[in-house]
Write a structure and sequence with these properties.
By secondary structure, the chain is an alpha+beta fold. It folds into five domains: 96 residues, no CATH class; 139 residues, Barwin-like endoglucanases; 116 residues, Enzyme I, Chain A, domain 2, CATH 1.10.274.100; 122 residues, RNA polymerase Rpb1 funnel domain (Topoisomerase I, Chain A, domain 4); 53 residues, no CATH class. The strands form five sheets. Strands 4-6-5-8-3-7 form a six-stranded mixed sheet. A three-stranded mixed sheet has the order 9-10-11. Helix 7 crosses helix 8, helix 12 packs across helix 15 and helix 17 crosses helix 19. Helix content is 46%, strand content 11%.
Length: 634
Amino acid sequence: EMDTVSSSQKRKKIIKRLKIVRDLILAGNRPEWMILTVLPVIPADLRPMVQLDGGRFATSDLNDLYRRVINRNIRLQKLMSIKAPEIVIKNEKRMLQEAVDALIDNGRRGKPVVTQNNRELKSLSDMLKGKQGRFRQNLLGKRVDYSGRSVIVVGPSLKMNQCGLPKKMALELYKPFLMRELVKRELASNIKIAKKMVEEEDENVWELIEEIIKNHPVLLNRAPTLHRLSIQAFEPILIEGKAIRLHPLVCSAFNADFDGDQMAVHLVLSNEAQMEAKLLMLATNNILAPSSGKPIAVPSQDMVMGCYYMTKEKRGVKGEGKIFSNKNQLITAHQSKQVDTHSLVKVRIDGELIETTPGRLMFNTMLPKEVRDYSKTFGKGELGKLIADLYKRFGFAKTSELIDKIKDFGFHYGTMAGITVGIEDLEIPETKKAILEKAEADVAEIEQQYKSGEIIDIERYRRTVAIWSEAVEEITTEMMDNLDEFNPVYMMANSGARGSIKQMRQLGGMRGLMSDTQGRIIEVPIKANFREGLNILEFFMSSHGARKGLADTALRTADSGYLTRRLVDISHEVIVNHDDCGCDGGIVVSDLVDAGKVIEKLGERIYGRNLAEDLVHNGEVIATRNTMITEDLV
């Protein structure tokens, strides 16, 4: 056949067939073994029939598919026994083959078999493959007992290792433990009565459950579980209501907020698991992010606002320049309103005269002496550094205690400060009009140069964008310079509590240049801001970017989820069971640079990693191979 064929496509096909035949011969397999002569039928339990209310039956799709095979097989036997014409038998054989194909993988060959309302029947392959198949739905992930889920609400008074568990939920989760304890203490004569007592919420039950939940941690999980910290252990505190209460500082680890998020609770059963939950998974042991080694339990929003407001100084306010002999004298003067919270005063602390404010003194008093700084204003960044420093000096337990103190301080004084936002807080710069007029004149000049052929279109576009970018920056600078340091919007952005200078620019300066759907900058800027309001054209221009942003977010989420899944699947077989496998390969790390700009410094990238080779400087070994890179080494 090879000799008679001229086209290379057909030759390839023949070679392929020849290879398969050769392989079959070499392996000693017969081709007829691939043909089914017997069709196995799966157990009835796996293709159930259920009686519905109206006396009708609901059945598994597999029963339908099997029935089609059986009917056609019987009909073929009958036709063969009565020696029907060859064409009829051939047609029946084809139909039988189609029925078997549909049973094994519906829709793989030919048209899929459908129900009366056009739904494709689920074949044997469909039962196994995909997200809803046997492997991914039931074998890699299972539904478990001793679990529940509910909406989460904030629990600002909780300690870091605690969560609020609704009483009704606890009663159901700890039911077997309660029943055992009731019988053990002879409050119930048998398990049946104990069960009844729990279900009827007998008064003895409430006392017992308080005892049982002590030293019996629960796991909280928020989907999607993207990293280790999406599941953490907490000691439950019984609460009224039906919502789970969550500590505000673990929100960033779970990526949770309180706009209707739900979380799952799991009970930890065996003693080994309970020990592991207490020693490794407790929220107090998970202050650092596994990705970077930086603190993840950092105060945010209200807490930052409270700490920032209290540690800020203000010139020319009541009591400025006064001198106090000790802390208590200053606190008393502050409480009796002789000294303002933000006024700079001098006070003797540990035999040294220090310049500070009453607010800073109050903030630093709750910190250990080693980390106190009476001259600093604490925003989000400073609080992050403080927590990293606390962890380095004192370890997890003490740090989580201090974080709780900072949280309470921030919430309390953030509320007392009464910071609000009004439209008047955004001041539009008086020079805005002049800046815009100058930019418009410059753009008109460039347009003229383009029309007269002095510059090409690309250059015209580049210069126009540069002029408007400069104008936006100028207006932003003017706006920021005009704002008072105690302006609520300025404080929010500057402290890192909420918002940014970029957002403030759009609210009180000008929205500036927008991108189109391709990500190319539109050269006509939006000259208005949100306080003035946008006209129809400006609103339409700004909607390009907004829509693209939403679409990109959805696509990115899907891509990253699929990549994660492939990584997890590929690493299933990798089991780490000792510290050093003796491998001496390593990777070279340097500054991460994009378009000539350093995005991530070398120090940030290598912190927490291990050295692949000895670190030698001027012939002296500073650190040996396998040493973890600490901040000092960085």
